[in-house]
Structure formats: C-alpha cells, structure tokens
Batch of 3 targets.
Target 1
Amino acid sequence: MAYYFSASRVTGGNAVFPDQIIIDVDNETLTYRKKKLIGYDDVKLRFGAIGCVSRSAGLVFCDVIIETNGGRTIRAKGFSRSDAEEIIDLLS
C-alpha cells in the first residue's frame, strides 16, 4: 500500500511545484519528489537507509526532515501538521 503526501501550494517555494513524499509500505521505500518546469528530481530510499525523521513546526505548516545513515539530509517543506505526523508515524 502506498501513501501519497503533497505539500501546500501556499508555502514558499511550493507555489507551482509542491514537494511530494510517497511512502510504499509493501516495498519499504520512501520517495521524495521535487517537480521542475521540465521533469522532476526523485530521491528513493529504503526504510533501512533512514536514520532519523523529524519535523520543524511553524505557525501553520511543518517541514519534514529526513536524515539518512549516509549523512544526507532531505527537507520537504510545507506539509500540514497532520500529514507531517502521519509521515513520521509511517517511517518510525
């Protein structure tokens, strides 16, 4: 089963192309997708490669911060608080 989360278009940097997080529980993978004018960038991680998942809460929206075991940090911006909590719960 796959869960799809899309950031709000209201937040800075997401007006045209919001960040997306796709969590596939069956294959145990997380995909972070950042769309561009032409194409998109994908980062695909196995659950075993994820070292830490946290959130940075603002007044209305949250950023989801994913740190890998290899030292890479992914910051997905502009998710609702409930989506951020669900993402953390699914990955924990």
Target 2
Amino acid sequence: MKINEKKKELKKLIRGAKTVFIMAHKNLDLDALGSSIGLYSILEKQKKNCFLVINDKEHELGVEKVLRELDGCLQIITGQEVEDNLYLRKKRNLLFILDTNKKELVQDYEIVSLFDDEQIVIIDHHELGKTSIECSNRIIDNTASSTCEMITNLIEEYNSSIDPYYATLLLSGIVLDTNNFTLKTNNETYYSAYYLSCLGASTTKVQYLLKQDLKDYMERQKLITNVQVTDNKIAIAKGSSYAIYRKEDLAKIADTLLFFNDIELSFVIAKTSNNITSVSGRSIGKKSIANILSKLGGGGDKMGGAAQFENVPISKVAEKLNQAIKEED
C-alpha cells in the first residue's frame, strides 16, 4: 500500500494527536533514523509534541555521527520514559513504528501496550510475517526502496519544507537501502532523491555519513574470502566461530556478494554475539529472501532479510539454510 493512499487517514490521526512517539527497529541504521527524523520534522511543523524512542546503547558509525550532530535538537527518550511523557488524555497520543513491523525488532515492544489499536501507525517497506504487530493502521509498501522514500512522499504530500540537513538524512537512508541505487530502485526512488535534492539534500554530506571504518571493512573482507557458491548462483559466506560481527556488517557483505558474476542470492552467516548466530540474505529479485528465511524463523522482503539463532553453531545454521533454500526450489 502506497503511503499516499492513506494520506487522509494519516492526516486525520496526526491532526487529532497532541503527543507523538516515533520508534524504529533495534540497531538503528540511516533508513530507520532518517525516516524517523523526517517524520519528526513534519510533526513539529504541525505543532505536535514529538519524541524519538531509542533504547540502543551503541550505534553504527553513520547513526552515531547524526545523533552527535543533532545533540539537543531532538527530544530523545528511552522506552521506560514513554509512560511519563504521555498526554493526559490518552486518546490524544500517537505511536509511529517505522522501518519494521516485527515485535522482536522494535526498540521497545512493551510500550506498544500503552496505546490503543487506532493510536498505532506502522510505516514500513518490509513484508509482514508471523510476528508482525497487529494494528488497524499498517502502511506496508513492498515496492518502496526504503522507509525514507515513504516518508519523503509524505513530506511532499504535506508540501512541507524541511531543514536541508534532514533532507540529507532521508537521502542517506535511500542510498543505504538501495546500495547506491543498484538494488530495489525504480522511478519513484529516483524521484524521491530528486525531490530531496530540491529541498537541499547534500550528496557530499551523504557520502560523509556513509563512510566506513577501515578496520571494519578489512574484517568484512576476511569474511568474504570464506565463500561457497552453489548452483553457480548462490553465494554463502561463513564467519569464524571465534569472531563477532555487527549485524549491519553482515548485511553489507551480503550486498557486496551480489555484485559478482551470476550470483542471484547471497547469504552471510556469522556470530553477532557470544551466543547468537545471525544470517543476512540478499537477492536480485528472482527468488524471495523472505520466503527462505521465514523457514528459519526470520523475515524480510523479496530483496533482503535476516534471521538469528541462540546457541546454535554456524555449521548447524548453514545446514538449516541450505535445507530452506532446497525447499524453495
């Protein structure tokens, strides 16, 4: 569903709210943060009292740069502080959930119970799954490149001028999720980028926000050297059982593997904590990553997704993944 198709309902909900809370997924990336701040800017212009709900203690490099540069400009609270900041009349509160629709992935699922069904709005570009949050206002657009693209459409709908820095954040989220406009990109994606440029988005600043740490890059290169290719089109990279990687690093490696000749599906399996083994997957679109990883208890959409296992070794996860891939053939 396109966000513009729900514009009347959205505007009515926003008009009736006094206090609005915005929450994205754990381990924020620039799509989650950029879309959250883009929505925040719309709501501020509508004279709403806005809060970003962030429980993350550590952040990836780009997100850390943004939060440092915007220190003091946004009202940021943890999930534990939401109840104390609710508007007295319960019906005048609104919760937006961005860039995810899964219970286990949001910053703090417990706060969802503080809001009635009609007070919750989900805006996301990932497919629904077994653990999707139930509410009457779900705007899920699988054709959108990113949640930043969806929020850009909403900004245009409101004809809202935003700070060029915020426009840059939205463009950064689009560039990130499309891997520099090489994945899940269509004419609407390019139009959103053009529109943000008209609002003052800086491509130089986007490049700065997306700069990588050299040590992290070298660690990812090590993981890429341990790749197996099956059926001449499926690349699976496995990390060492002694190395710990960040989830966003697994996603970046999976993106990189798609650039090699004939590769249609890519998966990266590695430990993301001492007891968690994670899988990140990407597809050029011929087969759905969501269909494969849902068999492993994960999710995502046609182009990408993830799954994780507690206290399961990398070798065992690889077996489960290979079986799921065979079942999808």
Target 3
Amino acid sequence: GGGSRLSSCSKGFTLAEVLVTLGIIGVISAMTVPSLMQNNAEKQYAARLKKFYSLMNQAIAEARLEKGDINYWGLTSAGTAADDELSEEEIAAGKLSVDMFWDIMSKYLKMTSRCRSDEECNEYPRASLDGTSFGNFRQTVILADGTNIVGTTIINPRCNVTWGTTNMLENLCGEIFVDVNGKNPPNKTGVDVFIFYYGNEGVIPAGTYNDTRFTFGDYCNTSKSHRLNGYGCAAWVLEKENLDYLYCNDLSWTGKTKCK
C-alpha cells in the first residue's frame, strides 16, 4: 500500500540547541524586564500623585466651607528654618500647629494612622533626586491608600506668600510633602516623594512653569547635586505624566518634553 510514513530524517531539537535558546531568552529578559518594571513603577507614581492632588484639593475646599479660610485656623509658623536655628519652644509650637492642621484635615481625608511625637513617628532615610542624602522622612499621616504625608511646613499662617510670576502662586500658606508609595524605596524627592504648596485655593504642585522658588531646571535635574533636588518635579509629573527627567537633562516647559 501507499500509506504515508514519517521521514527518517526528521528529528527534534538537541539538548545543546535548547540550552542555547533558553540562554538567549534569559539574556533578553534580563535586559528588558527591569526596564519594564521601572516604567510600570513610574506610571504608578504618576497615577498616585494625581489621586492625592485631587483628594487634597477636595479636602481643603470642604474644610474651608466649614472652618473658613486657612488664615483663620489659628496656625502658627512651622518649618520655616532648619531645626538647629530654632529654639525648643519654637519647634514645639510648630509641631503643635502642624498637628492642628492635620486634626482639621482628618475630617475630610481617610487616614489610617497619625503620629504626633518623635517617639510615635516612624522615620526612614530620605534622598534627593540625584541621590544626595538629606536626613529622614517622618510618617506624620498615613492615608487609607498607603500614601504618606512626610512633611508639612507653615511658612506664613496669614497665607500671603508669593513664589511665582503670576497669581497662580500667590496667597500660599506653606508646603506638604507626600510619599506616594509610603516608606517603600526609593524615597527620593522627584521620584516617589513630591512637594505641593497649599493655600486657600487648594494645593499647587511645586515646579510649575512660573514657580520662581523651585524651578524645574534647577530643582528637577539629575545633573544637579544638592539636597533639594527633586523639589521642582511635581508639576511636571502631573502635567506631562512622565518621569523622563530621570533619563535626560534637557527637558523644559517650553521645549523638549520627552527623552525619546
């Protein structure tokens, strides 16, 4: 009969060929997987930053409806100078004022925990965008989604500070530092920790195109080496939805907005 038969020449892959193929796959994975993981982490940082921006603006608006403008909350200055330049009384008064601010905000934000004293507050090392070590972050407030408030300043309780070229950055009270993924690394300003100004109109991300205090070019640039590097990144992440400034140093509000 003329039934079909398998060719006597057909054969499978040899063990050596399989091992070579697996080795190539392993090399490619080692090259691409970390990049994909980093890209995913950056997208999560941006998404969580947007969420906090929305929540905080809503909370301040609701607090003002009930308590009035922030300049009537009875706050005092806090965090306006380095701790070693302040007296113990000034430091204590500043901490109480920060506690008062978050006492008021706790009604409008879902918090899982608060701390008030040095003994209660967990701390972890902080670094700037370029890796410069800069003391510790303190977990003052932990929100329900794991976001941490790790710093609060009350620059002027009258809320009439101006740090910009237009009225967008007028009538500010101070700053809020937010760590979008809690105490998980890398704990760097401009990567997972960002700075907002706050005032009666809500929160404004630092580093806007008209911010004359923490400019994007000087405070969100890995080629700069100083402890405040990263303070000017929040507005870029919210507006451009990328952290490309980690990979190139020639981005600007009026020019190049992506590294590739």
